[in-house]
Design brief:
The chain is an alpha/beta fold and 385 residues long. It has 13 helices and 16 strands. The strands form three sheets. Strands 8-7-6-9-10-11-12 form a seven-stranded parallel beta sheet, sandwiched between helices. A five-stranded parallel beta sheet has the order 2-1-3-4-5.
């Protein structure tokens, strides 16, 4: 039996991925795996039994990644599971940034009580809320991951001219991206040429304040900017100044902060990007599947701290070793297996930064090799499945 601890309310459909070999709940102790959505785990002490944490969503800022790596806990996320939900809201953001629909609706409410005059007042006042169409305008998509590609394709279908920038564009994303998109190799070209700019990159030291006074100065007057990725990608003070000067016509953000609220030109959405029942189901199912595959087979897919590595099962058992990415580790691990007279039928090793992961399918199950491998300097965790 395996135990899964839930730190938030998790979609029932997602939890159905676990079969009767699993006990699941928020009161579970000594868990083998955990699923979390938004709960902050930085101050949580994890049991020695915990092998993996799956975040039902893309961001992992609520998980202590470095500590998990040091303790041999694999951290998963679910890239792409909420991509369609975010894409749809980005398209809504493009529309409401242009057509001033929200302001118009609020103004229409003020006409309550005017009786037969409402129709005339509407016709008289509607010109204050006019805005441009999207068709024919240039959209710059910064970040062509799962969400960025869907946004680019949807905008192309709406008749926009799409510019895409991503120095780390994956093969899968490239295959899925509309052939009409113009692949940009210098982000400054997007700043200089696009009428609309939407950001879809992770928040890293290199991307923090990506949109700031310097980059805004390069943009067209009246540019409209959308941020459904992370609040820290845009410098709030610089954005407010740009809105007040008229340089930026509208800023749509899914991460409200106190200074951004009630600023003219800011459309602050309360983090609704992935708030759909379909998205929650998709994220939960993917997170659960990642845990099952790792716990039962040792395969790692969509980890944020360890290398992506998986192989079909062969042999009588599988040895899974998380270790430091240092010389002679493979020699030490395979040497111990050989000394015990156990034949290795298949093996795979990959590294990611300071850490590496080795899987060995062996011809016979020998529990004694686990403790021997654990004793090797640089080994963090060993499992025999």
């Amino acid at each position: 039996m395996y135990k899964i601890k839930t730190y938030n309310k998790i979609s029932k459909i997602g939890l159905e991925v676990f079969d009767d070999k699993y006990t699941i709940g928020d009161e579970v102790e000594n868990a083998d795996g955990a699923i979390v959505r938004s709960a902050a785990l930085h101050d949580t002490e994890f049991p020695a039994t915990l092998k993996a944490i799956a975040r039902a969503g893309a961001g992992t800022n609520n998980i202590p990644i470095d500590r998990c790596s040091e303790e041999g806990i694999v951290v998963f996320n679910t890239p792409g599971a909420n991509a369609n939900a975010v894409k749809e809201l980005v398209i809504a953001g493009l529309l409401i940034s242009s057509r001033r629909v929200i302001s118009a609706i609020e103004w229409a409410k003020t006409l309550k009580g005017e009786g037969d005059q409402v129709g005339k007042l509407v016709e008289k006042g509607k010109s204050a809320f006019a805005g441009p169409e999207l068709k024919g305008k240039k959209l710059g998509v910064i970040g062509l991951g799962a969400i960025g590609v869907l946004v680019a394709n949807a905008a192309n279908a709406l008749g926009m001219k799409v510019y895409g920038y991503d120095p780390y564009l994956s093969v899968n994303s490239a295959w899925n991206l509309t052939h009409n998109a113009i692949h940009i190799y210098d982000v400054n070209q997007i700043f200089e040429e696009c009428d609309y700019i939407t950001v879809h990159v992770p928040l890293l030291d290199s991307t923090k304040n990506l949109i700031n006074a310097e980059s805004i100065a390069k943009m067209k007057d009246g540019v409209r900017i959308l941020n459904f990725a992370r609040g820290g990608l845009v410098n709030s003070n610089d954005m407010i100044e740009a809105l007040q000067s008229g340089k930026v016509a509208s800023y749509v953000v899914d991460f409200p902060t106190d200074e951004m609220l009630c600023v003219d030109g800011v459309i602050a959405i309360p983090h609704l990007g992935a708030s759909t029942p379909e998205s929650e189901d998709n994220c939960a199912m993917m997170a659960a599947s990642e845990l099952v595959d790792y716990i039962e087979n040792g395969n790692i897919v969509n980890s944020v701290n360890l290398p992506e590595i998986s192989m079909p099962r062969s042999g009588a058992a599988r040895v899974c070793v998380i270790h430091k990415n240092i010389p002679n580790m493979l020699t030490a691990i395979t040497g111990i297996v050989a000394e015990n007279g156990v034949n290795i039928e298949n093996m795979l090793n990959k590294s990611r930064g300071e850490y590496a992961y080795t899987m060995l399918d062996v011809a016979q199950k020998d529990d004694s090799i686990v403790e021997k491998i654990k004793s090797v300097e640089g080994v963090i965790r060993v499992r025999l499945i």
